[in-house]
C-alpha cells in the first residue's frame, strides 16, 4: 500500500489552492526560475505520454539542481524516469508502464531498481492513473470506476472498492492524486500563461488542474491577441499557471506534435550504452547531456541544427 | 510463401473482427489485424488506440511503434485525451479490444507486471499500460500471443489484466459485469473458454500444428473442443496487404 493520504486529501488540497495567488499577470520567466519552485520531497506529475510532449527541458533543468526524495508520476514513463532514478533524485515512481517502446525492450534501469527494492514502484492501469488526476482536477477524493476490479493491481497502491449507494454494485474507488507540482510542455502560450496544445491532449489539462504548482514550457510565446483570436484552442487558463518559460525544442529528442519528430536512433544509442554498461551508461549520459551543458541551448547544440531541422520536417510531413 | 508468426496472428485476429464495429487496438500484431480487417471484410470498422486516437488511416511504411506518437495519429478523425478515450470504453462503446501478455493462464488472466514475487521480482516487466482497462472495459477481448510453454502457465504470478480470474462467475463477482476474453489466438491455434468452468479450450488448430504440439507448449491441462477444426491458412491477398503496409517488415517480422 503506497498511496499516501497527502495524495488524496481533497480538503487540504483545496485549501492550498485557495491560498495560491491566481494572477492574470505575466508568468514568463526563465527555465531556472521555474524549477526553483520545486522542493526536495515533492510529488511531480509529468505531462505528455511516453516520448510524446515530455517536459524534458524542465526535467533537465530540475536534475541540474541535484534534488532528492522526489516522486515522479506519469501515465507511461519513458527514460526521464530512468534519469530520475540514476541521478538519485527520485525514490517513488507512479505509472502504468515503463520503457521506451517495444523495439527497445525492457527498461534495464526499472528492472535493476525494482528488483533490488531501491525504488517504490506504484503501478496503475493507464485509466486508473488518469482517473487519479481527473479526480484531483475535479476536487474530489476519489472517482468510481469499473477498471482494475478483480486484478492484483488493486493491492499495489492500496485501492478500495465502494458499494454504489444507488445500485448496490461494487465499484473501484480510484483515489485522487493531487501532485505538488505539474511539469508541462505545450506548443504555445502567451506571456500570461494561457496555453494551447496541438494534437494529442494526453492528460495535461487534468494534471494542471490537479497540481498545487504548475510549471510550463512552451515552444512558442505568442501575443495576447493571438490567444484571444482563438480562445477555443486554449486548454489551460493563465491563472492556473505559476511559471512559464519559452523553450523551443523543449521536449526534444522526444516528439512535439506538429513541431518535431522524435529521434529513435538517439534512444537506441542510449539503450545500447545501458546494455553495455548498465546504470553507468545513464550516469555518462547525464554527465554529457544534463550536467555539462551550461544552458538548454547548449544541450540542443549536442544534437545539432541539421538533425533538429530534419525532425521538424518529418513532423510537418506527418501532420499536414 | 512462408508465413511469419506475426503475419499468422494478424490474419487470424483480423478474421475475428466484424464490420460496423469498433476495436480498441494496440501497436504490432493488433494494429496489423485491425487494418487488414478494414481493408478486407470490415470497411466500417473504427479503430481506437490508447494514446487517444480515433479512426486513423496509418501510412504504409510509417506505422507507429508507440500508441501516442504522431504516426499513430496519422489522418485520425479525433484525438481525445487518454482518460476520455478509455472512458468511451467504460461507457461501452468498444466491441472488441486486443491485448497480449508475457504470461497467460488457463482462465485467460494476463501478467505483464512481474515474474516471481511482485515486491522483489525476478524479472520486473513494463506494467499494465492500458491492458487492464481494455480487458476490463471492452465488450469482448481478443488475445494475440506466441504460443510458448513459459507463457502458458497454470496460474499467472500476478494478475495484471483479469480474464475469468478463478473461473466460473468469479469475474462477475468482482464487479466486472461486462466483457471477458472471447478468443486467445496463438501461433498454434485458436482457443475459447468453456462456458461453465471458464477454462481455456482449444477450438481450432492452425494448418500444420498438432494437438501434441499444443500440449507440449502449454503449462496446464488444456480442454479440447469435441468439434475441433483447422483454420484456413492466410491467403495470398491477406499476406500481400500486410506486406504492403509494412514493407520494411518492422512488425510482421
Provide the low-confidence segments of chain B as ranges.
none
What is the overall silhouette of chain B?
globular
CATH superfamily of chain A: Glutaconate Coenzyme A-transferase
Strand order within the widest beta sheet of chain B:
3-2-1-4-9-10-11-12-13
Q: What count of domains describes the coordinates of chain A?
A: 1
Q: What structural class should be given to the helix and strand makeup of chain B?
A: alpha/beta
CATH class of chain A: Alpha Beta
Number of strands of chain A: 15
Q: Whole-number radius of gyration of chain B?
A: 17 Å
Count all strands of chain B and give the number.
13
Please tell me the CATH architecture of chain B by its name. 3-Layer(aba) Sandwich
Range of strand content of chain B:
15-25%
Q: What is the correct CATH architecture of chain A? A: 3-Layer(aba) Sandwich
Q: Which structural class best describes the helix and strand composition of chain A?
A: alpha/beta
Mean pLDDT of chain B: 97
Q: Look at the structure and give the CATH class of chain B.
A: Alpha Beta
Number of helices, where a helix is a run of at least 4 consecutive DSSP H or I residues of chain A = 14
- Largest interface by Cβ-Cβ < 8 Å: A-B, 64 and 57 residues
Chain-averaged pLDDT of chain A: 98
Radius of gyration of chain A: 19 Å
Task: Give a written overview of the molecule.
The complex is a heterodimer of chains A (320) and B (253). By secondary structure, chain A is of the alpha/beta class. Chain A has a single domain (16-124, 177-319), classed as Glutaconate Coenzyme A-transferase. Chain A is 38% helix and 20% strand. Chain A has helices at residues 5-8, 10-19, 31-35, 56-63, 79-86, 108-115, 126-138, 154-157, 204-210, 224-229, 264-277, 279-291, 296-301, 305-319; strands spanning 28-29, 43-46, 70-73, 76-77, 90-95, 97-98, 120-123, 142-145, 160-163, 170-175, 181-189, 195-196, 213-221, 234-236, 243-246. In chain A, the strands form 3 sheets. In chain A, strands 1, 2, 3, 5, 7, 11, 12, 13, 14 and 15 form a 10-stranded mixed sheet that branches. Chain A has a 3-stranded antiparallel sheet with strand order 8-10-9. The longest helix of chain A is centred in the C-terminal third of the chain and has 15 residues, at 305-319. The radius of gyration of chain A is 19 Å and the shape is globular. The termini of chain A are far apart. Chain B has 253 residues and is of the alpha/beta class. Chain B is built from 7 helices and 13 strands. Chain B has a 9-stranded mixed sheet, sandwiched between helices. Chain B has a two-stranded antiparallel sheet with strand order 5-6. Chain B has a two-stranded antiparallel sheet with strand order 7-8.
